[in-house]
Amino acid sequence: MSSFMREAGEWLQSIVLAAAIALVINVFFFQPTKVLGHSMEPTFHEGQRIYLSKVVHTLGRLPGYGDIVVIDSRVDRPRKFADDLAEPVSNVATLVRGGSPSGHYIWVKRVVGLPGDVLEFKGGKVYRNGKALTENYVKEPMRYSSPGKVTVPPGHVFVMGDNRNNSSDSRFIGSIPADHILGVMLF
């Protein structure tokens, strides 16, 4: 019986170590997630899985123009390290059993503005620093327009869905703080 207990203890130790390594990888480096909703059509469709590099989030760097990012849309509250620990566990559990990861506050969007950029929305187009963006990835011409201009603050990005007429994004919640960018899509 003691050899059985010893072997069971070794197995348990290996399982706990593997789980800890997987958690570290998911929190700091690499994470799968699932696309929810239709805001990124035609680029992505609901239920598709994407894989994120979390290095941007871990190092506090900003993504570049056109990067597809996953954000925490709750910009009215500060993010905590506990959020970074809880979300990967929740995402993996729901991906395994099916369902939606992390709730409706985790959004997949495209970066259209970086700190200091001045954005305008008119004539079905997005203008960055006075020049219309060429966006071959959008689903259809945007119906949204705004008489004013938006300046992206330091340490923030401005994100939009590719399905501009069916997307909750920075037009409605404001620019996204760097610590709310959870990762950049790898594939």
TrEMBL record:
Its EC number is 3.4.21.89. Belongs to the peptidase S26 family. GO terms for molecular function: signal peptidase activity. The keyword Transcription does not apply. It catalyses: Cleavage of hydrophobic, N-terminal signal or leader sequences from secreted and periplasmic proteins. It is a single-pass type II membrane protein. Residues 10-185 form the Peptidase S26 domain. This is Signal peptidase I. The chain crosses the membrane at residues 12-30. SUPFAM superfamilies: LexA/Signal peptidase (SSF51306). It is found in: Cell membrane; Membrane. Its main location: membrane. It comes from the Bacteria. Keywords: Hydrolase, Membrane, Protease, Transmembrane, Transmembrane helix. CDD domains: S26_SPase_I (cd06530). Gene3D superfamilies: Umud Fragment, subunit A. It comes from Anaeroselena agilis. It is an enzyme of class 3 (hydrolase).
